[in-house]
Queue: 2 jobs
Job 1
Amino acid sequence: MRELTFIEAIREAYIQEMKLDESVFLVGQDIRGSIFPHTEGLVQQFGEDRIVDTPLAESGMYGLAFGAAQEGLRPVVDFMFGGFTYVTFSEVSITTGQYHFLHGSQQALPLVITAAVGTGMRLANDHAMSVHSTFCHHPGIKVVMPSTPYDAKGLMAAAIRDNNPVVIPWHLGLMMERGHVPEEDYIIPLGTAEVKREGTDITVLANSVQLKNALEVAAKLEGEISVEVIDPRSFEPFDMDTLLKSLEKTNRLVIVDEDWENCGFAGTVSARVVEQGFDLLDAPIIRVTTPNMPIPGGYMENYVAPNPERIEAAIREVCA
Amino acid sequence: MALSKKQMITLFTNLVRADRFDKMFYARMLQGKLIGFYHPGEGAIAPGVAAASFLNDDDNLSPHHRAHGMAHNLSKGIDLKYYLAEHTGKETGCCKGRSAFHFSFPEKKVYMMSGFIGYNFAPVVGWGFAAKRRGQKQVVMNCSGDGSYGQGRAHESMLFAKTMNLPIIYWCENNGMAIHSSIEDMHPTKDISSLAKGFDMPAIIVDGQDVFACAEVALKAIKRARDGKGPTFVECKTLRFKEHDMGTKDLKGYRARKAEELDPMREREPVLLATKRVLKDGILTQTQIDAIGAKADEEVAAAEKFADESEIATPTVEELMAAVYAPNA
Ligand SMILES: Cc1ncc(C[n+]2csc(CCOP(=O)(O)OP(=O)(O)O)c2C)c(N)n1
Ligand SMILES: [Mg+2]
């Protein structure tokens, strides 16, 4: 079985989609020189018209993508770091999310926003923050995040083919993870969660790098607590059915999410479970998230973001 | 570039139509027959007519928000009855009655409207990029007010347009005001177009009350863009006769605008000036002018009839939820 790194898998999705569809192109800052390796060598292969470097100005850069999408192209716009989307936030959140709906469903806006996110490099708040909950807050935008090389390629391809704005941040902590990635083209439909490990005592919903941590804890607890681990893969639309089905079996839930606790994805899922599956629960839900503080850099990062110790403690508490 | 007689008649006709639509919106707002707010266009409708009257269907247009872009949109060949229906919450509205004052006519390459002043500066970059990539000589007419040039994205947009040599016209309709603020308090130089210098972009200043003068400049800038020579900055010095937004106070800073200031403006009313000119140049007779006015009144009446006879849009929440995303084939 062929293996690729996570970042190579994203790159392969770009190549595959650009070959399939002339209207797909990448735009960002310093992507020709590949500030991150997902754009390595692409300008040589596809030319400067399709691998577009822009001035250091996020509103102009995003405007290029947004307007090009209205003109029938399918841009992938790379913000480098997720936090940089805030520099042009009225565009990426409100103007983008409302475009199709508010203007009478006349025109689709097929574009992809991508960026690196996450703790691990000890870079502190502006470079380490997650952005998926914030984007989920704005109607009209799909938000997904891969946790494996296989999912990275399939979700990126699906995002590019979707007729709507799709935000797909990728976690720096996964960049060099290796895993099976088929050479042929495939997509993972947006809005489909996956049970990554079966179990019977408790469900842990964990995404991106936290999926890795959750699986590590589940393996450690084997024989003691049987942990089912689900990767949402897609935050919006969210696959509630897969989660409720799991809860029918386990009746217990821990949600792990590296985004902040306040108004975050984990809180939204908790609320939905209480509304739609309260009778399934034998214990309160616990969230393992980043506490509501600006993410510190340096070594403090280790215990602020969710980690295996915090996940294990939460599982034990819910199962006690 | 001297205008042809035909071009002058087109401009005059569109100007009269824009004036009648503006007055109708104004009147309906007072009668409670318009949803949301209205930013009256009186005194300021000539630049929009000039900017849009000679664009092709496949040129992009981003109208200025004043008079809710009606001068621009009707000059681009858009039937405003769908906009009035939108502004009255009707299901026949151009955005299915969902948008209050927004509009979208993608078939005429008028994609959108946003409530954020200066929003236009971002997407025009993409339209220009796409036009250049296609190589079919389309241009992007980007219209907005003096106030909008305070936005950082305005500067970014010009940076992109010049660096990438995009066919964008920065069409600034400078009425010297943004809500109550005067431009002297918001901009360091007399002319907004001085901004263009920093980008080595050609800039032209024109009398915004003179629809013909504006159109001559528009044609020049459009030609430059079509010829692949890149962006041009056009500053139309115009006026605002009424308050910023109907029902708000008409202030300059925090003091009321005075009659001494407002009255002389009336002498520079664009329809008045254009009428004098077409008569003087023998382009139109008074009888023809009256006929143009009568036809514009008919058009306005028909738009009102259409909107008033349309049903109020009342989709279910489920139907609306199903419209949040575009379908995937
Ligand atoms: C982002 C944003 N800031 C402020 C406003 C409020 N606002 C609406 S119109 C306007 C003035 C705009 O001035 P200008 O661009 O000169 O156009 P004018 O109204 O003078 O025709 C302002 C400040 C807004 N709608 N959007
Ligand atoms: Mg103004």
Job 2
Amino acid sequence: MSNKIKHHLTDDLLMAYAAGGLPEAFDLMVATHLSLCDHCRARAESFEAVGGCVLQDQDDSVSLSDGSLAATMALIANGAPIAKPARPGCSVLPAPLQDYVGGDVNAIQWRAIGMGVKQAILPTTREATARLLFIPAGAAVPDHSHNGMELTMVLQGAFSDEVDHFARGDVEIADEDLHHTPTADISEDCICLAVTDAPLKFNKLMPRLFQPFLRI
Amino acid sequence: MFTEIDTASLDEPVADGPLAKTWHAKERVRGRPVNEANGSCNTKTEWVEHVTRIRDAQDQAAFAELFQYFAPRIKAFLMKSGSDAAMSEECAQEVMATLWHKAHLFDPSRATVATWVFTIARNKRIDVLRKQRRPEPEDLGWGPEAEPEQLDVISLQQETAQLRNALSALPQAQRELIEKAYFGDLSHREIASQTGLPLGTIKSRIRLALDRLRHAMN
Ligand SMILES: [Zn+2]
């Protein structure tokens, strides 16, 4: 599984995820990739260790109010142990995505955006957008470039573009300069998670007509 | 020199790494449990025992010691993240209560107690200050059927202590930038230049723990 992944997340994304500085849509991308990739999970957890060191080196002379411990014991008494989250096991969507979709692939509310391509926008804060993309086997997503950063991770099937070939778990990181036309492998319909921090710009006449309806 | 995170350093030998001999117990004085006079083992697995006692025996004395050490630091951390004193204290209490309620989920072969507390405090900050959800990776935890190896636990704790020493030895400007990132003050684009942290060994150690965990789960 994770040892077949060739295209990983960058250090700055993993550190920002560990530090808690990413928009929600990017957090969702990182959490989904880490669910499939122990290599990046170990990198992310080592960045969390840096956070632990920063916490320990905080000024311990900050005073707490009287009765702070007693108030915490009351919180504990009124709460309950937090159960281990369920692991969905062998599914297309890893657990963090299932939380946003409300189930596995069958629960995705697709909307057609033309030429067989479908998308489902996931409910995150507006600083960045997360959506699932469905590309029919052998089909292409219209040539597009980006104002900002776009991360695309394969969940099912595979796609190729001008850069490389991407299969389950692989992340393509595209910046402003990349114009690409991802094309799904012929063997299987391709499902991806795509995250952008700016609207897409489409380069061909037809797709541009669709853009007002895309809500991205 | 610092080891950058990269694929190649995954293959480094970790068990008998050069870090072991630069370990100094005296570096730990500031973080030692207050009434932990006996047992040299405890200096290497600082606070882990406390969490185990909370998990197994709902030990309030152990919790009080953890609280005394961590609650002021959590409060200071949240205040630097832009929260006022009252809100920071309220959150610190909630973080410590979460520690109690999640004690059975803590994996000391992958994180120190300080690292784990940091992740709870970070999530609280995202929830309260940024008002957004925090997607977390699919859970991988030790179940009742198996626990991590003690040697893995000790090694991870030691390597994190080394990391802490290395961080405090960084030039001040670089250290401040890293702290800023962890207070939530840098975007991921601004963080780009902050790699080059000495994380090669600890990353390899966590990877090993993940491999063992996967093996135990199957
Ligand atoms: Zn990866």
